[in-house]
Specification:
Number of helices: 21
Oligomer: single chain
Largest sheet: 2 strands, antiparallel
Helix content: 55-70%
Distance between the termini: 65 Å
Strand content: under 5%
Structural class: mainly alpha
Keywords: Membrane, Transmembrane, Transmembrane helix
Strand order of the largest sheet: 1-2
Protein name: AbgT transporter
Number of domains: 1
GO molecular function: secondary active p-aminobenzoyl-glutamate transmembrane transporter activity
Shape: globular
InterPro entries: AbgT
Pfam families: ABG_transport
Length: about 525
């Protein structure tokens, strides 16, 4: 056994303790059920208390809603099916996996990985997959259902620890959610809330939807550097010391040479894929394209293109997967295609059960207003401290990271707390652009350690493909170093960025001068 340094021993003991404690928790489905019952109990206990909080979205007092009344229980039962069916990640995951499943079980993804690994230097494997994970933000939640599982497969095929690949891509997709040099739908969404909050102080102020694009673009370098170092120097060495990948993983790719018919099939299937992508580009390019919103935008949530990302992912993998399967002789009849889709859905059965209880808990937690109350009271407390501007900005990063553990949606949190943060800092001559940038840092870094992230259970499922005993504690212990390092390094980067006066984005500023 390799000799461990005291530093490694200390870190291993700390992370092993986190993993051990976390894995003592019940199955995630049972955990979400317990959290649901706890939410009901707390809502009943806290409902009579007047916390004196004003909801900035309505201007009215915010109260904890008692979910144990007959009316609320009847409403819960009547909406149960709708809450489950409309749980945002559920349809995204299942539809994408139908297409990806065909591409995987036909051998198309396997062939693509062999080509990729044939010319990618081992030393650059980690930064490249983190970069791909960051770029995936442009396609909404596609990274969760496409890039993260591929990270595990790529590492496994390269002879590296698959959970390290999952960790690296999870860090890029979720921990680096606000790091992207390509505009995405989240930019105008957050800007709309920031502008509304700023207009409380200055009704005439307008902000550019890309007011943070330079900062988020350069932040990509920070996320890649931190993820690269941690994955290769901390996470993977620890995983090799503490975990062993299960044997007999027959469904995963092997590194045998491609047969001639497989090479031909891969080239034809990939050509079809690229032709489809080019066709999609030319469909979306015209200003009057049916894939654009009524205002001509293509990256807003109102654009049909953004709402169709997952169906496009399904088709982009499903069609080439079928072509490769038949040309390579891996598929003989159409029944083989359906069998691949059924097999991919079979692997999602545990996730579907977890998603049921997760959807009910998240909906009830939002209905109770407990998370909203914590966010408002935390923001109000920060406001009452009257800290120096630099300390206030840092505090916003840390508070946003903490609130993110309780309220998953980035837009929902910002809609709630931006009317407090933005006007408060404008009175300190800090611009709304800088306040939004600070929020985006805090909102990203704790995504990867909160089980309230609706995709967190799915990542646990990805890990269990390689190590059956993987639990919530395992994943939290793997991702915690990323969260801590990103929190501190990204915050320091923001302060240096601010000190140097580098523009945050288009038409952005650091100071608010009324």
């Amino acid at each position: 056994m390799d000799r461990q340094t005291p530093k490694n021993n200390l870190m291993d003991r700390f992370l092993n303790a986190i993993e051990k404690a976390g894995n003592k928790l019940p199955d995630p489905a049972v955990l979400f059920l317990a959290l649901l019952l706890l939410t009901w109990l707390l809502s009943a206990l806290l409902a009579p208390i007047d916390f004196g909080a004003i909801d900035p979205r309505t201007g009215e007092k915010l109260f904890i809603q008692n979910l144990l009344t007959g009316e609320k229980l009847a409403d819960f039962l009547s909406r149960m099916i709708a809450v489950f069916i409309n749980f945002p990640p559920l349809g995204v995951v299942l539809l994408a996996m139908l297409g990806v499943g065909v591409a995987e079980y036909s051998g198309y993804i396997n062939a693509g990985l062999k080509y990729l690994l044939s010319f990618t230097p081992q030393i650059l494997l980690t930064p490249i997959i983190i970069l791909v994970a960051i770029v995936s933000h442009t396609a909404a939640d596609a990274g969760y259902v496409l890039v993260i599982p591929l990270g595990g497969i790529i590492y496994y095929a390269a002879g590296r620890h698959p959970l390290a690949g999952i960790a690296a891509t999870f860090a890029g997709v979720s921990g680096g959610f606000s790091a992207n040099f390509i505009p995405s739908a989240i930019d105008p969404l957050l800007q709309s809330f920031t502008q509304s909050a700023a207009q409380i102080i200055d009704p005439n102020i307008t902000l550019n939807p890309l007011n943070n694009i330079f900062f988020t673009g350069l932040s990509s370098i920070v996320v890649i550097a931190v993820g690269w170092y941690l994955t290769d120097k901390v996470i993977e060495p620890r995983l090799k010391r503490t975990t062993t990948v299960d044997e007999n993983l027959s469904d995963l790719p092997k590194m045998e040479q491609l047969k001639p018919e497989e090479k031909t099939a891969f080239k034809i299937a990939s050509l079809v894929m690229f032709l489809g992508l080019f066709g999609l580009f030319f469909w979306a390019y015209p200003e009057d394209s049916s894939l654009r919103s009524e205002s001509g935008e293509i990256t807003s949530f109102a654009a049909p293109l953004m709402r169709s990302i997952v169906p496009f992912i399904f088709l982009i993998f499903w069609i080439p997967g079928i072509i490769f399967g038949f040309l390579s002789k891996n598929y003989k009849t159409s029944a083989d295609v359906i069998a691949s889709m059924s097999k991919s859905m079979g692997g999602m059965s545990h996730y579907i059960v977890m998603a049921f209880f997760c959807a009910l808990f998240i909906d009830s937690f939002a209905q109770s207003n407990i998370g909203a109350m914590i966010a408002l009271k935390g923001a109000s407390f920060l406001q009452s401290l009257h800290l120096p501007s630099q300390v206030t900005v840092i505090s916003i990063v840390f508070l946003s990271a903490i609130v993110n553990l309780l309220v998953g949606s980035a837009s929902a949190k910002w809609a709630l707390i931006s009317p407090i943060f933005v006007p408060m800092l404008m009175q300190l001559q800090i611009s709304p652009d800088l306040t939004q940038a600070a929020y985006r840092v805090g909102d990203s870094v704790s995504n990867i350690i909160t089980p309230l992230n609706p995709y967190f259970p799915l990542v646990v499922i990805y890990c269990q493909k390689y190590i059956k005993k993987t639990g919530i504690g395992t994943l939290v212990s793997i991702m915690l170093p990323y969260s801590i390092y990103l929190l501190f390094i990204w915050t320091v980067f923001l302060l240096i960025y601010w000190t140097l006066g580098i523009p945050l984005g288009l038409q952005s500023s650091y100071e608010y001068l009324p």
